[in-house]
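Re: the request from the purification team.
They wanted to know what the chain is likely to look like in 3D before they choose a buffer screen. I agreed to run a prediction and write the result into the notebook, where they can find it.
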Amino acid sequence: MKPKLVRTVAALRRETAKWRAEGLRYAVVPTMGAIHSGHTQLVTEGLKRADRVITTIFVNPKQFAAHEDLGKYPRDEDGDVRKLGKAGTHLIFSPAPDEVYPPGFSTTISLAGPAKAGLEDKFRPLFFDGVATVVAKLFTQTGADIAMFGEKDYQQLQVVTRMAKDLDIAIEVIGVPTVRETDGLAKSSRNVYLSKTERQQAVAIYRNLQNAAERIRSGVNPQSATRSATRTLMALGFKVDYVTARNAQSLSIPQNRDEPLRLIAAAWLGKTRLIDNIPV
């Protein structure tokens, strides 16, 4: 199936109005393109829950800091359309920046809660305001019933879930488990930047998270388990931004052993920054 490609909000709403008139339920999968099997799994999960799926492709300039090179972000619209069509996407919304942020645009969502957890926000302080602003626009532009997000970007998932709830946006945000390579490495557009040797080393993040989770389940203090995982990764040559145990919903530092926990990590391997997380 070849999905229909639209580039304006007006064209998008014409298509979704037809679906609404037919009583169809539809999902949205927001992406920045560079489509891989992690994205197509979100489409697959959306198709299980809805009659139609929209995938958005938009490299959002508002979530790039001045030192981050927006121009180097991988783009392959033709390839993305083919992959999404094969996955079953019905409609692709791929707007130009001026369509999303027209002249005079002056609104940004300001966040607290899981967006200020001292994780990604510590290293990319403007990132989640940019994410929340564009995602809120995509939610209202598409009018979708459900939104599919991967758990790999776990803090982002909690941020957009909280944002939609706080702003009374009538959409259900669904987290989909991380798609992994056969050795366990989380699939990511960034993996293409790893050298062959780095690619072999990269799975150490996932394996150390698994080991830390096993230790916590056996009674080891979460801080002790994550400190040990950090030391191991550093010894393997990673530059570790964080390995931490957090409350699975609020992302706050856990205060008791009965809280649902999520282990979350970010580390550099060479010039590539990798993130991952698993439940405890």
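For the purification team: The chain has two domains: 4-176, 189-279.
Please add any questions underneath this entry.
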